[in-house]
Specification:
This protein has 653 residues and is an alpha+beta fold. The chain is built from 12 helices and 25 strands. The chain has 3 domains: 84 residues; 185 residues, Sandwich (Chondroitinase Ac, Chain A, domain 3); 237 residues, no CATH class. Helices cover 35% and strands 22% of the residues. The strands form 5 sheets. Strands 1, 2, 5, 6, 9, 11, 12 and 15 form an 8-stranded antiparallel beta sheet that branches. An 8-stranded antiparallel beta sheet has the order 19-18-17-16-22-23-24-25. The chain has a 5-stranded antiparallel beta sheet with strand order 3-4-10-14-13, with no helix packed on it. Strand 16 and strand 17 form a beta hairpin. The longest helix is centred in the first third of the chain and has 91 residues.
Length: 653
């Protein structure tokens, strides 16, 4: 065995310990000096960076201020050219209205609308036929008001929109008053109507395809009512009335009126639901006492003003009546035909209008059945009210992606992948037309006339989108719709306005595509470190900036904006409330790179970004002239701008 090592003395151990302590102190001093040096360098870099950033901000502010005058002039010229072109069209439309000699009031003049409504109210009607004729005349005025509403929506005039909708509601309320007035007269003289052997009166007005249809059934005895099945084959409406209907109306001779309209008179009042296929109103009515013959005289009770038509509640809310018949409560069955232009889901939802809450309600609605072959919907309801097929306003939101590409000079195609369907539109200087999907419900929106030679149907953007909404496709979202969509917030209106205006100028020769980064842009007030995991409460969609991708397409070729191999062919453009810039963002790389492209700076508009391009091509001035707005392309640019603005492509994609 080897010799063991000699044990260190106490002095040696103390010497080693002192040496280690001295080395530790020296290392700490060196680390401290290095830290001071690093902090000093970092602070110096931050200071220089702040100075550089301040200098760049000053330069940017000066640059934008100078360019704003140029942009203001260009946009002003665009407005003048557009007004000139639209005035020529307006003159033609006004001339056609003048030579048509229409007696309808001019809906641009409020006095004429109120005068018309006063005259209609003063001209009392007695027959349902006359009331329906007046309703059809009133709907023509509503059509004129909807035209004004669409123009106001295209120009973003919210006050005018509200004004139009106010009078649309008032006129349609007047239509209901006319039907009520004629119904009251019918009930007052009900004994003059032909009744069957069971003392029942069965009447209907209108045809299957009419926009307004009325049916009436009356039981001319206060007793002896049994469950009754009522069918109106002429207007395609059916009712099953339970025996409890009479038990909730004891002491009354009862009548039931159905009033169907292809519109709903509460459109827009419910912030989350919209109706599809019109509204059917089912009212339980009290038939007044019959006239009596006394010594050759006919004595008839005349109801007090305002009480000509007595509508009975079902179920009856009277405490005594409710208690006595609570065990006999039975639902009523309602069925009606849905217009052929309405898109109905496989399992539709039926709601009744709760006037007190001003909202649609599904309470008490059961056994909903939809027969698509005959387009008939049926359901049972625990109450009589106004019913409609309803769906969420945001059912077709958000947009998964969208792209716009030129088809020919001053014509482009917009493809939008909505939640349920992929829609294709063609935008031209004449307006907007629907190209797809080719659904049976949408063919009348896609084509004018009938037969194999039907021509494409072109309307103003707001008009076509309103008609699509009537079909059940709401592609005109509002800010409140974003509340029901996960992770979406409306963009700053100034950002949207700038983006839509600038993009409309290049739509004739550039492809424009959505970017998946648009939704996930962070708010400016949160400085994010992309190398670290971002807390959920600090990562919110930015609403002050919007991003799209563009690609020059002078030859009108078709490219796939979703093809990852084509990512580098697109240039990302970011829009702000007061500027725009070409950035280095790539669709296949996350997170979004908001750094300006090499050589590029922010400018007051996208046109100025193109004008100040750091590497202009040999045909630079021709390219600028191509995207400059003048009389030849002002209407096309405006149609593109209106379509994008109405569909809110940047806020809901």
């Amino acid at each position: 065995m080897g010799r063991k090592g000699k044990k260190k003395t106490k002095a040696q151990l103390e010497a080693e310990l002192n040496t280690a302590a001295t080395d530790q102190v020296n290392r700490e001093k060196q680390e401290h000096l290095a830290k001071l040096e690093e902090d000093n360098f970092s602070n110096r870099c931050k200071r220089l960076g702040g100075e550089l950033d301040s200098k760049q901000r000053v330069e940017e502010a000066e640059r934008l201020e100078a360019e704003n005058e140029i942009v203001k002039t260009l946009k002003g010229e665009r407005v003048i050219d557009l007004d000139y072109e639209q005035q020529k069209l307006a003159d033609q439309v006004n001339w056609q209205k003048f030579i048509s000699c229409t007696s309808r009031p001019n809906v641009s003049n409020e006095n004429e609308i109120t005068t018309y409504m006063t005259m209609v109210r003063e001209d009392k009607v007695q027959k349902i036929e006359d009331a329906m004729k007046k309703c059809h005349e009133s709907e023509e005025i509503v059509g004129d008001l909807m035209e004004q509403y669409c123009k106001s929506r295209e120009h973003g005039d919210k006050a005018r929109q509200d004004w139009c909708m106010h009078y649309i509601y008032e006129i349609r309320k007047l239509e209901e008053e006319q039907i009520d007035e004629a119904t009251a007269y019918l009930l007052q003289y009900i004994e003059k109507q032909e009744a069957n052997s069971h003392s029942q009166v069965h009447l209907s007005w209108g045809q299957q395809s009419d926009d307004l249809k009325v049916g009436f059934w009356g039981h001319l005895q206060s007793k002896g009512f049994r469950a009754k099945q009522i069918d109106y084959p002429k207007i395609q409406i059916g009712l099953d009335l339970p025996k409890s209907l009479a038990m909730h109306s004891m002491g009354h001779c009862i009548g039931v009126r159905t009033f169907y309209t292809t519109y709903d008179s509460v459109c827009g009042k419910d912030p989350s639901q919209m109706s599809v296929g019109g509204m059917i109103r089912v009212d339980l009515l009290s038939i007044p006492p019959f006239s009596k013959k006394v010594k050759g005289w006919t004595i008839r009770d005349i109801p007090a003003p305002g009480q000509e038509l007595l509508k009975l509640p079902y179920p009856n809310t009277d405490t005594h009546t409710q208690t006595s018949v609570s065990t006999a409560m039975q639902p009523c069955k309602v069925e009606y035909r849905v217009p052929p232009h309405c898109i109905v889901r496989k399992s539709p939802e039926i709601s009744w209008w709760d006037a007190s809450a001003e909202a649609w309600s599904i309470d008490g609605i059961t056994e909903i059945a939809w027969e698509p072959e005959v387009r008939k919907v049926s359901f049972f309801s625990a109450r009589l009210a106004s019913f409609s097929i309803t769906q969420e306003r945001h059912l077709d939101l958000p947009y998964t992606w969208w792209c716009m590409r030129p088809l020919e000079p001053l014509v482009c195609q917009l493809t939008v992948q909505a939640a349920r369907y992929q829609l294709q539109f063609v935008i031209s200087e004449d307006g907007l037309r629907l190209k797809g999907p080719d659904l049976p419900e949408l063919r009348d929106l896609m084509y004018d006339g009938s037969g194999p030679d039907r021509l494409p149907r072109v309307r103003t953007p707001a008009t076509l989108l309103c008609e699509l909404r009537d079909c059940g496709l709401n592609l005109m979202p509002e800010d409140r719709d974003a509340e029901h969509l996960d992770g979406y917030r409306p963009k700053n209106p100034a950002t949207e306005a700038r983006a839509y205006s600038d993009l409309s100028e290049i739509a004739a020769c550039w492809d424009i595509a959505s970017s998946r980064h648009n939704k996930l842009l962070p708010d400016k007030e949160h400085v994010l470190d992309y190398n670290k995991e971002v807390p959920k409460d600090k990562f919110r969609p930015g609403n002050n900036r919007a991003i799209v991708r563009i690609r020059e397409n002078l030859l009108h070729k078709q490219y796939d904006p979703l093809d990852p191999d084509c990512d580098a062919d697109y240039q990302a453009v970011m829009f702000f409330p007061d500027k725009s810039c070409m950035v280095q963002s790539m669709e296949q790389k996350s997170p979004c790179n908001e750094t300006a492209s090499v050589g590029h700076e922010t400018h007051a508009s996208h046109f100025m970004c193109c004008n100040k391009h750091p590497n202009p091509g040999p045909y630079h001035y021709e390219d600028l002239a191509r995207i400059r707005v003048n009389c030849s392309n002002a209407r096309f640019c405006e149609a593109v701008r209106q379509t994008m603005a109405l569909m809110r492509l940047l806020s809901f994609s």
